[in-house]
Amino acid sequence: MHSVQFTAETSSNGVIERDFTVGEVTGALWSPASGADRAPLVLMGHGGGNHRKSPAMTGRAHRLVTKCGFNVATIDAPGHGGRPLTAHDEQEIAVMQRTMAAGEPVGPIVVRYNAHLAERAVPEWQATLDALQALPEIGADGPVGYFGLNMGTAIGVPFVAIEPRITAAVFGLHWPDVLAELAKQITIPIEFDLQWDDEHIPREAGLALFDAFASKEKTLHANAGRHKELPRFEADSAVHFFARHLARAATPSA
Q: How many CB atoms within 10 Å of residue 197?
């Protein structure tokens, strides 16, 4: 099993940010500067075309660390960030770009490509979680959440469906194709984001994916706006969601 190898460290506003590798996978870990022991862990999956330390990832991580005292980790998906593109990646990206330039629906291509990325990324997430839980500030027994939208949902749903260590998750902004059958295997608490006027994902498609989750506790957050107009307050909502579920799971029973 690969261990976490830290490659850089910075600190600001009470948050320690460390770059790391697990084998060939590049990641980032944000933790409270106070060095609290055994804090819950939230894993975050980034969107397509982004990377582990994109502004959205960094902003969400800082919220979870400063408001909840949690550890937060991201990794670069295959072909993203500093990770090399394969010939298959380059071919699929070129097809997507041509399709978008022609004004044609890009959904079928995105779904196909994201499913391919998930096959590669899920084992990487499992290996990363193994390695992170070997760190003393995280530990093997603490609660773990997953937060991923767009491509982060495409990778996160198959990951969470087979990973019993995940106890709460935030998903959204993706098509149900491929994912709906996997979502039926997920029973943990879910918060799901949907853009009511999404120009790429039909409203009924987003609702179908939400409906597919077998969770008894699941909440739909539908907001007016297009695909990239998810309100910033949804990041705060996710923080409150994880604070409720992960902090509760971390409290020893009487």
A: 11
For residue 130, give the DSSP letter.
H
Distance from C-alpha of 29 to C-alpha of 208, rounded to nearest angstrom: 33
Residue pLDDT, tens place only, 83-111: 999 999 999 999 999 999 999 999 999 99
Which residues on adjacent β-strands are paired with residue 146? Answer: 43, 169
What's the token pair of residue 60? 């969400």
Using a 10 angstrom Cβ sphere, with 0-12 exposed, 13-18 middle and 19 or more buried, the burial of residue 185 is middle
C-alpha 155 chain-centroid distance: 8
SS (H, E, C) 76-144: CCCCCCCCCCCHHHHHHHHHHHHHHHCCCCCHHHHHHHHHHHHHHHHHHHHHHHHHHCCCCCCCCCCCE
d(C-alpha 241, C-alpha 229), whole Å: 21
Q: Which helix (H) or strand (E) holds 145?
A: strand 144-148
Sign of dihedral through CA atoms 130, 133, 135, 141? negative
Question: Of all helices (H) and strands (E), which one includes residue 182?
Answer: helix 179-183
The Cβ of residue 24 has, within 10 Å, a number of other Cβ atoms equal to 10
Q: What is the DSSP letter of 232?
A: T
The token pair at 104 is 């044609």
Q: What DSSP letter does each residue of 42-59 carry, written as one string?
A: EEEEPPTT--TTSHHHHH
Asked whether the CA dihedral 200, 50, 56, 189 is positive or negative, the reply is positive
Lowest mean pLDDT among 19-28, 132-141, 212-221, 242-251: 242-251
